[in-house]
Amino acid sequence: MKLTKEERAAISALKSLEKNWPTTLWVFATGNALHVMKCDSSGKKITNRHGGFDQEAIVDSIHIPNDGGDF
Q1: Cα gap 71→67, rounded to integer Å
Q2: Residue 16 within a domain
Q3: Residue 26 within any structural domain of the chain
Q4: Positive/negative CA dihedral, 66, 20, 25, 70
Q5: Residues 45, 53: contact at Cβ < 8 Å?
Q6: Is residue 33 part of a domain?
Q7: Distance of CA 25 to the CA centre of its chain
């Protein structure tokens, strides 16, 4: 598939980010955003009392279109 210069630059930026991503953060995807989540002091994903991911652990959200699921 042919990509524009802008598209190639965006992919390159994500690959660079991947190389430098801190292990203390992780990303939770929803249909309208990528939510940057903080891990607890032991490096585990923070969950709420129901076992779901704790929304209080969201430190920022990035609005990049995504489907939030698997193929």
Answers
A1: 10
A2: no
A3: yes
A4: positive
A5: yes
A6: yes
A7: 8
Alpha-carbon distance 70 to 32, whole Å? 15
Task: State the pairing for strand pair 58-62/33-38.
Answer: antiparallel
Q: Which residues pair with residue 33 across a beta bridge?
A: 30
Structure tokens at 53: 């991911």
- How many distinct structural domains can be found in the chain? 1
Entry pTM: 0.79
pLDDT in tens, 57-66: 999 999 988 8
Domain contains 7: no
Residue from 66, 5, 57 nearest 33 by CA: 66
* Rounded-to-integer distance, Cα 2 and Cα 58, Å: 35
The CA distance from 3 to 17, in Å, is 20
